[in-house]
Amino acid sequence: MTLLPVPDIAIVVVAAGSGTRLEAGAPKALVGIDAHSILRHALDGVFAALPAQVIVVAPAGHEGDALAELEAAAGDRRDLGRVVTGGATRQQSVAAGLDALWGDVKTVLVHDAARALTPPSQIDAVARAVTAQEGVVPALPVVDTLKKVAEGAVVAAVDRSELAAAQTPQGFPRAALEAAYAAAVSAGVEYTDDAALFAAAGNTVRHIDGSARAFKITTPDDLERARHLLGASATPARAPQEAPSARPVIPRIGIGTDVHAFGGEGNLWLAGVEWPGEQPLSGHSDGDAVAHAIVDALLGAAGLGDIGEHFGTSHPEYAGAHAEVFLARTRELLADAGFEIGNVSVQLQGNRPRFSVRRREAEGVLSSVLGAPVSVTATTTDRLGFPGRGEGIAVTAVAVVVAVDPRDG
Questions:
Q1: Arithmetic mean of pLDDT, 174-184
Q2: Contact 115, 216 (CB under 8 A)
Q3: What is the 3-state secondary structure (H, E, C) of 141-199?
Q4: What end-to-end distance do the CA atoms of the chain give, in Å?
Q5: What residues have CB less than 8 Å from 373, skipping those under 6 apart?
Q6: CB 194 within 8 A of CB 170
Q7: In the chain, N or C terminus with fewer CB closer than 10 Å?
Q8: How many other CB atoms sit within 10 Å of the CB of residue 189?
């Protein structure tokens, strides 16, 4: 038997929540998404990342179920995993996981099992970013307009440029995290977020880019979103028999194209993911031709104009923005107009980057933001035209949308 090297990283997978808001009648982590549970999908991502000690914090009475899921996901890394029993609060559950750390562990990641579709690349990125002095949180920019309310009235606007939506795993240097937990226990204070607990002890927390795919499964709608992304058939939001007076639902199709030349500084952003070491595309935002073509296809299908009208140079707030911002806002525009996205198919033409190696990751990011399946194909042009000469990338997207309000044509 080959012995695995002892890693100096540990991942505490918090799976002890009751899942009341999920309304599934079982602990949240053990609820099925498709053929597998939320916990199993989370562990699949964890074991696809860098080798680490994996500690699953399970609901009391369900330790055996959690162990079965761990063993199924771990493969030849089974010796790196164990299950412990959670406490009455999240803080107590994480503390139980910390008590099970191996002596060689120096970096601890705390991960919510409910973020079941978190990409392994995000787990690795957090682990690499932790230092001996600083914790790390993956986060997404807040794209919604936010308001402060009191007693049902809007009292002030909130500057979203200073806000970010935190995700997991959150990473910390072990010694400082254990000291912060000891301080919280001593003070009798309960935190629902490990970064807040860590910062309250005087430590620094910084953030890195998160992933739209790392959303938290909290409500039945979140569970349906996860099932949709994994290719499971979803129940239509409104069956025909529920609206007998509605007109027949006729899909609407839109086509979008975008072209960008290589140029500028930094790394390439394409199809919602960053490509370190690849020359970037020039443009008003990040030059992501795939995202821009998708936006035009969706807007065209819904009859809502084009990308220049909503995101062009007259909108400086989108300068440098990435795909997730554009796509999330486009989804909002369609929803406001009474449309739901069916699916999107994209083809890009270019000699680089080598897209196939990250196709599934890119499709996952795009599908997660839009809440609908997105497929991306890539082709070279046998060195013909500007893509063949390596001058840039051309993209064509086709989108299908459906009117969800029966009054819409």
A1: 97
A2: yes
A3: ECCCCEEEEECCEEEEEECHHHCEEECCCEEEEHHHHHHHHHHHHHHCCCCCCHHHHHH
A4: 65
A5: 228, 229, 231, 343, 344, 367
A6: yes
A7: N
A8: 12
Four-point Cα dihedral 257, 262, 267, 268, nearest 10: 20
> What count of Cα atoms within 13 Å lies in the side-chain half-sphere of residue 76?
5
- Measured between alpha carbons, how far is 280 from 205 in angstroms, rounded to an integer? 29
State mean pLDDT over 143-165.
85
Residue 10 phi/psi, 5° resolution? -130, 145
Q: What interhelical angle do 220-229 and 359-370 show, nearest 10?
A: 150
Q: Identify the helix (H) or strand (E) that includes residue 343.
A: strand 339-349
Residue 244 C-alpha from the chain's centroid: 37
Q: Given this model, what pLDDT does residue 234 score?
A: 37
Instruction: Give tens-digit pLDDT for 88-102.
Output: 999 999 999 999 999
The structure tokens listed for 313 are 């140079």
pLDDT digits (tens, 9 = 90+) for 241-297: 343 344 445 789 999 999 988 887 788 889 988 888 888 887 767 788 999 999 999
Q: How far apart are CA 194 and CA 169, in angstroms?
A: 10
- And the tokens for 318? 């989108």
Q: Which two three-digit tokens encode residue 73?
A: 């996901």
Show contacts of 2-8: CB within 8 Å, 24+ apart. 4/51, 4/76, 4/77, 4/79, 4/80, 5/51, 6/102, 6/104, 7/50, 7/51, 7/52, 7/53, 7/80, 7/104, 7/105, 8/104, 8/105, 8/106, 8/107
Q: What is the pLDDT of residues 61-83, one digit of tens each?
A: 999 999 999 999 998 899 999 99
Q: Give the residue with greater pLDDT, 171 vs 17.
A: 171
Strand, helix or coil at 248? coil
DSSP letter assigned to residue 392: E
Cα–Cα distance, 297 to 401 (Å, whole number): 10
Alpha-carbon dihedral angle through residues 358, 261, 311, 265, given to the nearest 10 degrees:
80
Model pTM above 0.85: no
Determine the 3-state secondary structure of 246 from DSSP: coil
Q: How far apart are CA 38 and CA 152, in angstroms?
A: 36
Among the listed residues 373, 384, 375, 377, the one whose alpha carbon sits nearest the alpha carbon of residue 347: 377
R_g of the chain, CA atoms, integer Å: 23
